[in-house]
């Protein structure tokens, strides 16, 4: 995958303070050419600050950032060839769709003879041909964000920086645009760094996810690895829901409801039961090795085969093999 590609950006020991508080603390991160990297973390953890530093919008920081081995501080923001899209559409309201794109091409000093052809191809790529003459206020939020994306990629930037570009959109539009964004990024192969606080968005879009918390980078890996092998309870719980049993992280879908008592079976009392469409989420009160625990269990619903649970009902459940305690292993298994 992307690992084979060469390192394009190197972030070395980058820190940034506002007053006495760190917005970024000792960030070390390399970004590979062509990859889609998501910076994921809760609000206020420093994601936008890092993106703004990369874009050259924030110049006062400690540490070093290299692009192709050269310090980017030596390159003026306008000459970094970075394209940007923000959460707010930030289009020029007095310009039509095609004029917005043309403006960006001229600002980037794109070759004059190629401007018209470029506008054409980028409108096609972002599915905006029929809207080219419209002004921003004649477009929906999703369409406006496609224009912002078209405008950012038209000058063929070496890096695309996206700050929560889908967050202001309705769920359905967001999901649709997410797929389009991924396809466009794959088609043109532009190195992309996207900030999001939405774990599902990060998992579905990124080649690698960089999870941040309290100004620090806490884990960076592929979506699968982050989901399956989170390094801390914070990451585990931020990326979906997690049980902590014997200090091992167990996903709700890995706990299995069982009809009979077996070797690694425990019993619990149902305290809540939520229908969630294609699965049911129940919470159980249980006692494991003399420790009171609340266990979350997700039960898939296949072909309308569903079973309801009543609050107060006592049921059995199995934990995955890797959390069978040594005691239980010796005793029964
Ligand atoms: N211009 C600023 N002045 C003072 N504090 C700021 C400024 N910009 C950001 N911060 C603070 O830095 C921290 C990180 O902010 P930000 O990078 O915007 O977080 P995120 O994008 O992850 O939500 C927050 O505590 C925020 O309040
Ligand atoms: Mg932000």
Describe the structure.
The protein is an alpha+beta fold. It has 9 helices and 17 strands. It has helices at 47-55, 97-107, 115-125, 141-153, 171-188, 199-205, 223-228, 233-238, 326-331, and strands at residues 7-18, 21-32, 36-40, 62-67, 70-71, 82-85, 159-163, 191-196, 208-213, 216-221, 243-245, 248-250, 256-258, 265-275, 279-288, 291-300, 314-318. The strands form 4 sheets. A 6-stranded mixed beta sheet has the order 6-7-8-3-9-10, sandwiched between helices. Strands 13-17-14-15-16 form a 5-stranded antiparallel beta sheet, with no helix packed on it. The protein binds adenosine-5'-diphosphate and magnesium ion (MG). Residues 47-48, 195 line the site of magnesium ion.
Q: What's the topology here?
A:
Elements: E1 7-18, E2 21-32, E3 36-40, H1 47-55, E4 62-67, E5 70-71, E6 82-85, H2 97-107, H3 115-125, H4 141-153, E7 159-163, H5 171-188, E8 191-196, H6 199-205, E9 208-213, E10 216-221, H7 223-228, H8 233-238, E11 243-245, E12 248-250, E13 256-258, E14 265-275, E15 279-288, E16 291-300, E17 314-318, H9 326-331
Parallel strand pairs: 3-8, 3-9, 6-7, 7-8
Antiparallel strand pairs: 1-2, 1-4, 4-5, 9-10, 11-12, 13-17, 14-15, 14-17, 15-16
The structure holds adenosine-5'-diphosphate and magnesium ion.
The site of magnesium ion (MG) has 3 residues, from helix 1.
